[in-house]
Amino acid sequence: MTTSMTINKTSIELVQGDITQEETDAIVNAANAALAGGGGVDGAIHRAAGAAELQAACRKLGGCATGDAKITPGFKLKARFIIHAVGPVYQPGSEESPRLLASAYRRSLEVAVENGVKTIAFPAISTGVYGYPMDKAAQVSLTAVADFVRQNDRLEKVRFVLFGSEAFETFKAALRTLS
Ligand code: ADP
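# adenosine-5'-diphosphate complex -> structure
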């Protein structure tokens, strides 16, 4: 299952699947501020990349602020790079949550471009343990990516790899509302 939309020079694709298997130049990790590894997609990426090597690389980065992103090699992954992005813990009604979530996507894309990445895959940052409602996250995340690629020609493909059919369908509905 795939659905896509081209904005400016970039194809934005939605797929249902496991991000650790992606063959894009970079995959994005929904990391925590300590870059210490954890559960969810973070744990899956650490296991697939090789936990010891990836943890050693992360330790050298000295953490990452919420809304920011940092890069490491992909080690055993097919992807050359892992971009560790820190999304917010969802606070209902707060304007900080969408601002920080959009920032995590934008910073990931900036770091990607700085490193020559042409194709990149994202999970639905903050929608697991961090509690961001999937429909709200889909809207903010897709809008942040669309805004970036309208201003920047250097990315060929941005994929959202959604874990499960509910996440996939929710992102698909949100993509239709982007113009
Ligand atoms: P956060 O702490 O940012 O909320 P989580 O890892 O708890 O991060 O969840 C983020 C999203 O990643 C959730 O929607 C979760 O279902 C999804 N997810 C978990 N494992 C994978 C995977 N292997 N590939 C893609 N997405 C995944």
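# post-check
The first helix runs from residue 40 to 49.
The chain has a mean pLDDT of 97.
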